[in-house]
Amino acid sequence: MKKITCLLLLISLSNISFGQDIHWSQFNDNPIFQNPGNTGQFNGDIRFIGNYRDQWRSVTVPFSTISISVDSKLYNHKNLGFGGLLFHDVVGDGQFRTVEFQGNASYLIKLTSDSIHTIRPGINIGMNHRQLNSSQFYFDNQYNGIIFDPTLPTNELLQTERNSNFSIGTGVIYQYYMNDRINFTGGIGLYNINKPNQGFYGDEIRRDRRFNFFGKGIYKLNYDWDLVPGVQFNIQGKYRELMIGSSAKYTLINKLGEYRALYGGIWYRNRDAIYLSAGLDYQSWFFGISYDVNISKLVPASNLRGGFELAVRYIMNRFKPRKIQHRICPDYI
To answer: How high is the pLDDT of residue 119?
Structure first.
């Protein structure tokens, strides 16, 4: 039991010492986290997105992550996008908790007068808070020689169990947009430019910069079917993550103000997992779900089980009443 406890403690401390940014399997369904240039890059007025991920439930205490974001465009200046994102992440026995708020801004630059080719640079500023609950850990001093007694003092003096910092990021995206069914978006982002200190107990441990590269698109196959491929590559310190795959989209109905479409796809995360995804477009709503099948060296413990993820998106379109000018007939008619 003590060995398992020590292992979990080391895992939690390693997250503090060599922490990485969170990641999502449905990476294209959390766009302003993916790249600040995606802020305001959508058809509509206001976009709301919610994401939830539950991982490693079969191995240890599950890793749970929730994210909520909203972005829009300036009402009288549609080229300027702005938005915010809040995420909450809890991992391990020590309930290592991360809460971060990110504010994004972007600006659309048209490369051609017909807006088929555009770029959108963006900036990201985040406030990050992390804390640890050491009362959830077990120590050798709580073993009385016969049994483990959680009421015994740990005799561990921990100076602080929380840390707050801010980070700066930037990014730019390029979009080729012929229509809703033929388009491509790609981008590059750099995060944690200032390498904020995330150390506990007086130690200075800098958060590694993260480089993000992504590409996604839609390609019309025939009247009903579209191909929706995507790829993303992250570099952060020694960490490398490549995700690639594609969904197929089948449009059920798209006429007279009614819109329905189904998605189904298969994706691969290098040396970690294969995951399946499914989705539904319903008017201005999108609902997505995915499940990771673990194929890494953790398989003996995970039994191929990885992470379960949900995504919800709603795009609001403000109603713009038509201006109707009434003509008043003269009195002499």
So the answer is: 98
